[in-house]
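Review form for a predicted model. The reviewer records the input and the model, then writes brief findings.
Reviewer: anonymous (R2)
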Amino acid sequence: YWGRQVMNELGVYPSVCEIDAFTHAAIEACDELDGVKDGIISDHSLCDFSAFSIVGESVDCDGTTVQLTKDAAKVVEAVWAGPSNPAGDIGWFGLNKDTVITTGPISYVSTTCAANGTCVATNEFYLNFVRWFVARDPEYDFSNMTTEEYLSFLQLSDRLYHSALSAASTDFSGLRKSGGKLISFHGLVDEAIPADGTIAFYQQVLKQDPNANEYFRFFEAPGIAHCSGGPGPWPNGAFDQLTKWVEEGIIPETLIAEFEDGSTRPLCPYPSKQTYVKGKGTHEGHFEC
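Model under review:
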């Protein structure tokens, strides 16, 4: 909902086409930072693209020329940065810059435009949660909600439902003592749950137990969206690799992920990153960690 909150405060509701243009531009700018052009940003820490850098450029939206605006860039940058108060101690992570933020049931920026070009926000997911579970007022009016009020709802929601909905404990000593193993991966273009939240969680796990990767391995999955979709390869054999780790002691140094065409690419255990190695002679290039 954060994107909608920013749109409400600006009083501007960019079209899906305009918002998508910023995403496409970010991919175009950062795609080849890993060494190959494939529509996937493998290491987002290297991508310093700013939405403001293309304000004023024109894009074609179903035959109509649209000029990218500063307000639309503000909305996109807000989604990428995530909600935060001025002090930076309240909020959450944003989405990565190659994430599609205009489609799906939990899309951050969803608008519908009339024939005359007038657009309105359409995402209702967060509204219903706050009305029924946080504000506890089915008639609560979001149209005048301030950012301060929005952030207060985040805090209240955490206080009310942390024990029931959160999975934030970083203590895996029980798993370690039992001899269990855990594999986790998170798609870096997840449009519903920011991947940086999972990365921060695993960092805390390693802070508590620097040897946690001996029984708990986390893999970033470039190009994978929420539960399905995205241009990246999927680690469909992760469960088999987990089974071999438990039963045969074969450590998953990488997860083997597969594209729709059957080609594969390794997913790398955190904190290592996918790196493209150019081929020599007749040998094709490939990715390594």
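Findings: The chain is about 35% helix and 15% strand.
Further findings: The helical segments are 2-10, 16-30, 70-81, 125-134, 147-165, 173-178, 195-208, 238-248.
Recommendation: see findings above.
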